[in-house]
Amino acid sequence: MSGALLIRTEGLRKTYGPTVALDDVGLRVEAGSVYGLVGPNGAGKSTLLGILGGLRRPTAGSVTVDAPRERVAVMPDTPRFEPWLTAREIVDLARELVAPTLPPSRADDALAEAGLADVAGRRVGGFSRGMLQRLGIAAMIVGEPDLLMLDEPSAALDPIGRHEVLELVSRLGRHRTVLFSSHILADVQRVCDMVGVLREGRLLYQGALDELLTGRVAPAYLVRVREPVGPVLAALRAETWVKGVEDEGHGELRISVTSVGDAESLLVGVLARTGARVVSLEPAAADLESVFLELTA
Amino acid sequence: MNLWRMELARLFRTPRWLGLLASYLVFGILSPVMTRYAEALFSNIGSGVEITLPKPTPSIAMTSFIGNASQIGLVVTVFIAAGSLAFDARPEWAAFLRARASLGQILVPKYLVNAAAAAASFSIAATMAWVVTSLLIDDLPAAAMLVGIVYWEIYLAFVIGVVALGAALTRSVIGVAGLTVVVLLAMPLGAEVFGTAEPWMPSTLVGSLPALVDGASASEFLRAGVVAILTAGACLVAAVRLLARREI
Question: Where residue B19 falls among pLDDT bands split at 50, 70, 90?
């Protein structure tokens, strides 16, 4: 990441009649980042991307996208095309519209990059949902944009299709700035380095994904001991620095603690006092889902 | 691929061109035939009732052709044009186009290709009606036919302009087509109510071909032709401006 902002919004607000879709959103997307916009359905993600892509107008606030319009590519959540056009024709049409100076062969390159080289000459009427998503991505990248904005690119795809699309997004993010929205937190955690959490039109958090995961959730440890676990559970629950212990079965315990320092000083001692046979002990990594639930609770 | 070729592909890779041509051509052939043989047909199916029809003339054949073309042909034309011009009906496809091209870039090829296709279909059908009428009934005045065809082409350009405006006022293909048909039906009624406006109304052009064949002067329809051209242009400009205000 270069640190320079490619997208900046100030006090962005969008209303549909009495419904507030976006409220005081101050989005910051750095050039070179893969930014994941997460939130439940109806959080305002598509509205925000629509405004950034110039397809909708804000009710108030300002939007700055530091890239020429032809260098910004937008993909809706369910790309649809004229069914009687071939994949190559659609991508070539996109090239003709945004980068006419590039050679027509660029359409085939983009299709190959999206994994559609074999079906380039086929009409898209019979394409699967996953193929349409990849075609949408090919139509985005054919003009070699600086910024790609994708709305729910992996939603409603089967696991294989989801994996393929996420791999593609991840690859694109190595050379371009990518902003994509999703309500599938695992997808965001997998490919993004920056994240924004949107709920009911408000941006609850934005920043580096690592910082979010390490700083927001109560620290926890995963301990695996040989049976019986009863004495260990009782001993841990008696400690004031232990917030809770969950027996996850097969000797695995998830221990939430008040502070990492206390746990590092005291946890091993407690286990030793109970005479437990410890198989393993490790800090539990926070996942985006638990952070998201905490933020939106 | 570009937006012009895409519109041509929309016509020729689908049955649209066939539907458009057939909706005029069928009547271009059948109208003179029916005019010529109507009496014989009715006498064969009659049960003792004597049916007397006027002597078939080229003017009756052309009136019959225009009567059908202005109903079935126009409705098919309107629906085919609406399918192209109402591109906002599918927001995902609209987003593809709008994010990459200006509304003028999108609308102009759609308008011109549809107007040209409708004009070509009508012209082929009218020429066929001319030939069949000449073979079965009598010759038609060439100058009147040519001017009449040009007036109808102008009328079709006006109709497609109304479709473009309709696409900016409502989103669905059926809505756009319905709105256009209502406007087209309302125009002759408006001309009836405001009698002095009739020579200026584009709908007056519908009857130009049979009237010219009957000896009317081409200048009688000039005002309506000019108004039709100006209105089509105004509709297109208004459509671009209204579509720019619409969100996807």
Answer: very high
Domains in chain A with CATH codes = 5-213 (3.40.50.300), 220-296 (3.30.70.100)
Considering only residues 1 to 20 of chain B, which have any Cβ-Cβ distance to chain A shorter than 8 Å? 1-3, 6, 9-10, 13-14
B84 CB-side CA count, 13 A: 31
Full-model pTM: 0.83
Per-residue pLDDT at B90 exceeds 90 = yes
| Distance (Å, whole) CA A220 – CA A216 | 12
Q: Write phi, then psi, for A33 (nearest 5 degrees).
A: -90, 160
How many residue pairs bridge chain A and chain B with CB atoms within 8 Å of each other?
Answer: 61
In degrees and rounded to multiples of 5, residue A74 shows phi and psi of -125, 140
What are the chain B neighbours of A97 within 8 Å (beta carbons)?
2-3, 100-101, 105
Say which DSSP state A125 is in. G
Give me the amino acid identity at B104.
G
Write out pLDDT tens, residues B40-50: 777 777 666 67
Alpha-carbon distance of B160 to B232, in angstroms, equals 8
Cβ neighbours of B15 in A, within 8 Å: none
How far apart CA A50 and CA A41 sit, in angstroms, is: 15
pLDDT for the residue numbered A258 = 85
Task: Give the residue-averaged pLDDT of A104-117.
Answer: 93
The CB density around residue A170, as the number of other CB atoms within 10 Å, is 14
> A80 and B92: CB-CB below 8 Å?
yes
Q: Across the interface, which of B10, B101, B248 has its CB nearest the CB of A55?
A: B248
- Whether residue A92 has pLDDT greater than 80: yes
- The answer to whether the beta carbons of residues A68 and A110 sit under 8 Å apart is no
pLDDT tens profile B108-133:
999 999 999 999 999 999 999 999 99
Query: B93 CA to chain A: closest CA distance, Å?
Result: 6
